Amino acid sequence: MPREQFNMRRHQKAYPALTMDRVMIELGAHAGGDLEPINFCQASSSFNPFEHVDVSLSRDDLGKVTPYASLNGSLGLRRAICRQYREDFGYDLQPERVCITAGATEALLIAFAMLTEPGGEVLLAASHFPPFRCLAHMFGVQCRFAPVNERHALDVEQLSRLITPRTQAIVINSPSNPHGTALTAAELEAVASLDVPVIFDEVYQALALSDERIASAIAFSDRHLIVNSFSKSLSLAGFRLGYLVVPETQMGLVADVKATTSFSSSAAGQAVCEALLEHRVALLGEHRALLRERWRTFSEAAEALGLSLYPAPQASLYGLVDLAPFQRDSARVAVDLARNWAVGVAPGSDFQTPDPRFLRLNYAAPSSQIEPGLRRIASYLQRH
């Protein structure tokens, strides 16, 4: 009897679907077409640090970074990160507690692997970065969602009521994606005082739109985890470099997990990043100045086109276009815009349920694309 043909679908595991992934596919179909694609969906800044700092690697330098890097990352880069926390927050972080990762994505993956087991729960803000719940799904963990307050920030007072014996971790994104709202130092301390491990995701902490410094949870990292990345602060998304700060008691565990994810992060990228960090203060100043200029351009163009925006973020790369006046489903709008208008946006439904009816746009896109992209969005909404 002939063997039954293997059917992959029978073994296929369900996985959380994100509309923004479909948006990127639809947007890619316009490459080389009549309408130039404008990508407000992807989360990277158009700031170029190499316009301000010259970093070059010689042939000898490149020869030194071809082998695997150290498991936890180069000591020079980890020391530079520690120096940053000492200068900014007066916190004496030791380089042994820092693990260099392939962006914040791997740092989050390692954190979930360290803290969660199938059947447990993690607490997230009701409005959150979608990969948090994707990682929970990957590790067989249930999500519980804490409400957000009138600032669109996680309501810290509600957290303690949601903790159960199954709660394995709390994930805090401050400043948050998509709203760009930061928790205060007192709120971070209140979260840290709960008897549950916390993953503090701080990838936008250095990108305040004002001169006000955004609080960090680094002072509580002796018992909790800190995730950060150079993808946002130094605009090095393509280098895929982030880091995870862990308590001394978990230094061995993070090394064990890192050894089975990527083993080591890009050695060449780490060398470049370490050189850039010597100019960190100047580069961050230039980057924040660019973001302030882009936000003005973005918000003024949106107002002129009749698009209503949520309040300016405290720190992030995103502006939120309010869809409530149009009574349109954000996922459908995002796909329509990508397919028929060659504009990529992220729908609010990817970040929160039920659909909060907004579109997340990256205002840090090239300035030449901001007004034309917003004009296409306004034209689409007016037609519908």
From TrEMBL:
Pfam annotation, one family: Aminotran_1_2
GO molecular function: pyridoxal phosphate binding; transaminase activity
Keyword annotations: Aminotransferase, Pyridoxal phosphate, Transferase
Cofactor: pyridoxal 5'-phosphate
Gene Ontology BP terms: amino acid metabolic process
Domain Aminotransferase class I/classII large: 38-377
Family label: Belongs to the class-I pyridoxal-phosphate-dependent aminotransferase family.
PANTHER family according to UniProt: AMINOTRANSFERASE, ASPARTATE AMINOTRANSFERASE
Record's protein name: Aminotransferase
